[in-house]
């Protein structure tokens, strides 16, 4: 399979997100930080900028971006938060809001998230509620953030009751996915993000899944395949978000694998030493396909193909691979029941009739899920 | 002046708020709590309800409302916050979000604010961000909340940097203004709310100001004049909000008197023992007219008429009436500069060419304001 012409080396791919009144572009390519600064200067002449980042990204990439801002004569403040999921907390949210107010960020100014999904979700939420909403730009620096969290306007923080329970829909004014920033990402974080890439193939694009099976190592290595993969993912997400911004229908398809994933993250206390989001999603994807198989919806062949690909990439695909253990079937299902995708106590699942044939299944009985998880725990996912 | 037929005793006045896709009604009348419960049952069959209220209102009115909910078979949880402006804090926001999550309020459930503007603003903000937005109903129990804060969807909390700096636009699904609930309001709080009533006359309805001069004591006493005043205020606010939901233009007119008022509240540390919001607004209205007079925009006659009416009602109209003093002119203007209505450091003011002839004045020089406030402090507002 060849890469389309628009991802030839050096090219920049623009993916528009068609939202009435709040349309914006995702720009994908290598070395886009100064291009980002140029776009900001054009979009908001005279505006102040707050660059929110985490300590790790600050050390690696903030100076380069700030040099670009300086070149454009844009005044900026840097606000740094600790890295890690624990940063999506009430306490960090308050500290960030107060730091933005102290920096005198006003309604016409711009708040920029330079970091992974944690920085993006926290910063987007703060931007959504600061003065009831200020402009917000995403410069995602992880693969996961480039293909998923920076697109679509979901922002938020966690509560002790669960992940992302406090948040807002707040669309960015621009997303710059500089794929060269990913060169410094750890292999583990890169692969975790890759789980979200492959998800788009599993949802409704079997040809893209085929392409991933062949090209995954080149995506990791960098180069045009990486840009192509990010672009395909962004296009897919942008299309779903444009159809259903507030997740009242279709958008729930993006949660393929996530009901399991969120339960696993909850049970491992969001401890990234044990499990990062993308790893939880990888297990969730494999489980969603095996659960679909068990329900007689999907062939064993397709379910096995999903797990095999995740295994090949070096991603986990079974509950046994959760370091320290995931818990009992009852604990896992109870942790799912906490999910915000539950309406009036009924479980909603994304299931699949095959690779690229996912659908939203309402009213899945908790006992079905429990029985499946029990079988998984007993057989190490070999019950397929 | 006579009261229109639609406010005859016993009648219920319905004011529609025409917002594309999120239209809702304000229902005004005496003894509407069971009507509210009936509407909720019809709007959301099977939904759970969280009733958020403050300790004072809980003691006075929550049992009556909950009896109505019970009669309709609606399951509910009561969540009580302390009364007072200090409740619009990060800490109370977090406590409320967690209480709503503990009550398992999901996306299809309903959060109700039963209280004054403090309960409404805090609860509305929590409803806006809980699970990225749950349905929200306002049952305002102060005059200020019935004529102002419950209508229009502005919600939020305070930061140490200023009032309402953290918040969201989140329209209620319904507003029930039960004017009988105001019978238990202290005279001081009632009069404070009255400042916002009279504001609508001053903005663009001189005939309503005339009517208020004649009927104010009957509004306080209760009866059809009260319902009429609430309805006129709600209609006026609904019309402005429908034109400009996000305060990008016209809606700023509603801030008549508020740039001064917010500065005074800030300088008195939001201490309601010294100054409540409506009292600050009363002083702000008088100042806005005297400032307009000083700028040669408005006749001294009109400015005097405004102050005289506030005096007659028993509301403050000068800086000298701020208990403990308002501070120096420099302090007052500096406190204004913090206001979120400042864009890129330029002061925006609502000024008036006369009663019912207010307009938005951009780029008012800080020195002009300082000189005016100095004169006010020197002359006790007698410089008119
Ligand atoms: N808003 C959404 O729609 C959405 C969608 C999916 C996931 N999410 C959220 O995203 C979060 C996970 O995002 P994530 O995986 O990006 O995690 P993350 O932001 O914690 O980043 C992972 C780690 O990589 C480091 N890092 C970031 N960029 C780097 C770079 N270029 N080089 C080296 N290190 C770098 C970070 O410091 C961090 O330690 C979760 O909180 C999840 O809930 C949100
Ligand atoms: N959202 C908006 O558009 C908007 C507009 C204007 C004002 N506000 C906000 O509203 C707040 C002020 O509202 P408020 O004046 O209603 O204050 P409040 O909510 O503090 O109520 C004032 C006092 O009256 C008590 N109370 C309430 N109802 C009562 C009743 N029926 N009987 C007896 N006591 C009762 C309360 O317990 C409180 O002690 C401020 O925070 C202000 O910023 C918001």
From TrEMBL, chains A, B:
Binds 1 divalent metal cation per subunit. Can use either Co(2+) or Zn(2+). One of its GO terms (molecular function) is nucleotide binding. Residues 193-342 form the 3-dehydroquinate synthase C-terminal domain. It is an enzyme of class 4 (lyase). GO terms for biological process: amino acid biosynthetic process; aromatic amino acid family biosynthetic process; chorismate biosynthetic process. Zn(2+) binds at residues 196, 258, 277. One of its GO terms (cellular component) is cytoplasm. Pathway: Metabolic intermediate biosynthesis; chorismate biosynthesis; chorismate from D-erythrose 4-phosphate and phosphoenolpyruvate: step 2/7. InterPro entries: Dehydroquinate_synthase, DHQ_synth_AroB, DHQ_synth_fam, DHQS/DOIS_N, DHQS_C. SUPFAM superfamilies: Dehydroquinate synthase-like. It catalyses: 7-phospho-2-dehydro-3-deoxy-D-arabino-heptonate = 3-dehydroquinate + phosphate. It is found in: Cytoplasm. Its cofactor is Zn(2+); NAD(+); Co(2+). Its EC number is 4.2.3.4. NAD(+) binds at residues 117-121, 141-142, 154, 163. Keywords: Amino-acid biosynthesis, Aromatic amino acid biosynthesis, Cobalt, Cytoplasm, Lyase, Metal-binding, NAD, Nucleotide-binding, Zinc. Residues 79-191 form the 3-dehydroquinate synthase N-terminal domain. PANTHER family: 3-DEHYDROQUINATE SYNTHASE, 3-DEHYDROQUINATE SYNTHASE, CHLOROPLASTIC. Belongs to the sugar phosphate cyclases superfamily. Dehydroquinate synthase family. Catalyzes the conversion of 3-deoxy-D-arabino-heptulosonate 7-phosphate (DAHP) to dehydroquinate (DHQ). This is 3-dehydroquinate synthase. It comes from Bosea vaviloviae.
